[in-house]
Here is the input.
Amino acid sequence: MKRLALGFTLIELMTVVAIIALLVMIGFPTYENFVRRANRVEAQSLLLRIGSEQEKFFSTFNRYSGDVAGARTGIPATSGLAMSDTTEDLTGTDQAYYTITVATADPFTSYVLTATPMGTMQSVDSCGDMTLDDRGNKGAATVRCW
Here is the structure.
């Protein structure tokens, strides 16, 4: 009499494990690149928002602000934009992936915003620092970053 086999052999089980491991090895770097690209887009969005606030500030005070996160006051020399200078608020987490700095030319008639990657996830991003100036020029380490 022939006996029915119930279950899997060890070779079948190891084949399935090997296929799953191969899929993970291929998929995980792709996922990491997707996350880096999404974080980069958040930084670009923040740069554009801060640039827009700089233009509003300029139309009010006839100069650009040198402080992104500072409190907004009625005194142009000490007034900031009262905005977040990291992407932490955009992500809704405790982790900031980019920090934003502003450099102004004396007498505050032009500016350059710089988004600098932070943390282990973004620090290996090939784009590096991204910039936006008062004329709308966008810059990065490679062309495809913006």
